[in-house]
Amino acid sequence: MRRQGLGVRRFACWAVAVGLARVCLGVHWAADVLGGRPCALTWLVEWGVVHGDVERRSRRRSGGRRTAWHRLQCCRRKGGLA
């Protein structure tokens, strides 16, 4: 759980840095960057809700057993398919 929090913080820092860089380079106005943040956050939250719902449904259908999808995700987290 702690590593997941670190990943979220890294991503947040990266997102802020990209936004600042785009404003400094003159590619976007500051209002564009600031307006894009709520849109991106909304999209991420909706994606997370849908993904979580799909995962819960697949576990319910499989009777709590790990499906092929769950095994694939586990292998990806461990660093490869074996």
Can you characterise this structure?
There is one protein chain. The chain is an all-alpha fold and 82 residues long. It has one domain. 80% of the residues lie in helices and 0% in strands. The chain contains 3 helices and no strands. The protein is elongated, with a radius of gyration of 18 Å. The mean pLDDT is 77.
Short note summarizing the structure:
Helices cover 80% and strands 0% of the residues. It is mainly α and 82 residues long.
The major sheet is characterized as: none
Distance between the termini: 25 Å
**Total beta strands:** 0
Question: So what's the overall shape?
Answer: elongated
Helix content: over 70%
Radius of gyration: 18 Å
Q: What count of helical segments does DSSP give?
A: 3
* Low-pLDDT stretches: none
Q: Structural class, judged by helices and strands?
A: mainly alpha
Q: How are helices and strands ordered from N to C?
A: HHH
Nearest-integer average pLDDT = 77
Kindly give the count of domains: 1
Taken as a percent bin, the fraction of beta residues is: under 5%
